[in-house]
Write a structure and sequence with these properties.
Blueprint lengths: L2 H6 L4 H16 L11 H16 L5 H24 L4 E3 L4 E3 L2 H10 L5 H4 L5 H8 L46 H7 L6 H9 L9 H62 L1 H6 L6 H14 L2 H6 L2 H11 L4
Antiparallel strand pairs: 1-2
Helix pairs in contact: 2-3, 2-7, 4-7
């Protein structure tokens, strides 16, 4: 492959991401034919035009098939991990595989180059399940890997997995060969790891619904939002109660101060004989002076101030002569 063609067939992260999204959407819309395959015509008329228009690229069906082989190898790596031990799980929130340290240790002993699977987020795993898992049982590929393609090596800059000349071989019908068919054709003795994979390939991989993961995330977000709302309501309630309490205390202080002022005024008025005397009508100053003197000499100022105006006038007439 010359330099120009090699550069032309490279896929960026965004191109791969959009391709996967379009495939998942097409599968959900029922674009596969009766045999469960998204054929070449569908890809060329419904998938690639949208991809090329959205990202301004010029991908052909040949480029598409090359990228699908890469994605299939990536998905096989995920499923090999799950089949290796029942101790592996999947975190749909963090998009990571989970397992105990012992399970990871045993897996890395058999796959030392796959340590990134433990620490990196595997965002496309659930989408690749939708794309490749539906027809695993009969060995065909739901997106048309059975079409004849060029299986030459591609440069991959966006993943740890790489495609090689011998990873994907096809039979006379253009379908990928199984590991047993490849080993038979090349007259090679399978290694212990290959034998193990051959035995466990018969197991049905565990399937997790992507909608379940989304639902769990929505429920988690909903619970978190409800909790935040409850906390906010409690804080607002405490603030409101404190303001009401402060307002009541201020009203009590104001009422108490008012009563004290009125009490002092009443006390002052009660003890002021002269003010009480001035309230009595039709008395000249001389008589008022005599009456005040008499009241203090007799020690009856409280009695005099408690009298009504008429009573005061009558007491003065009875005790003070006009001479």
């Amino acid at each position: 492959m010359d330099e120009k063609e090699k550069q032309y067939t490279q896929w960026t992260l965004d191109e791969t991401k959009v391709l996967v999204e379009l495939l998942v959407e097409g599968i959900q819309r029922g674009w596969r034919d009766t045999s469960g395959v998204m054929n070449k015509a569908t890809v060329e008329h419904k998938i690639l035009p949208v991809l090329n228009e959205r990202l301004g690229c010029q991908k052909t069906h040949k480029h598409y098939m090359s990228r699908m082989k890469y994605l299939k190898s990536k998905y096989d790596m995920y499923t090999d991990l799950q089949r290796f031990s029942s101790g592996f799980g999947w975190d749909p929130i963090m998009k990571k595989f989970t397992a105990s340290d012992e399970v990871w240790h045993n897996y890395f002993k058999a796959h030392p180059r796959h340590k990134f699977l433990r620490y990196e987020s595997n965002e496309q795993f659930e989408d690749l399940q939708i794309i490749f898992d539906c027809t695993t049982a009969n060995g065909s590929c739901s997106v048309g890997l059975g079409d004849t393609t060029d299986a030459r090596t591609n440069s991959v800059g966006d993943s740890h997995a790489k495609e090689t000349d011998n990873v994907f071989e096809v039979d006379e019908d253009g379908c990928p060969l199984s590991s047993q068919q490849r080993s038979s054709e090349h007259n090679e003795t399978p290694s212990a790891e290959t034998s193990l994979k051959g035995r466990v390939e018969k197991l049905v991989p565990r399937k997790r619904s992507r909608t379940d993961a989304v639902r769990n995330l929505d429920e988690l977000n909903s619970d978190h939002n409800d909790s935040m709302i409850d906390v906010s309501n409690k804080i607002l309630s405490v603030i409101q109660q404190r303001e009401e309490r402060q307002q009541k205390e201020a009203e009590k202080r104001e009422e108490k101060l008012k009563l004290e002022v009125e009490k002092k005024e009443a006390e002052k008025k009660k003890n002021n004989v002269w003010d009480a005397m001035k309230e009595v009508p039709n008395l000249d100053q001389r008589i008022k002076f005599k009456a005040v003197t008499l009241i203090y000499s007799l020690g009856m100022k409280d009695v005099f101030t408690d009298m009504s105006v008429e009573e005061r006038y009558g007491w003065i007439q009875s005790n003070i002569s006009s001479d």
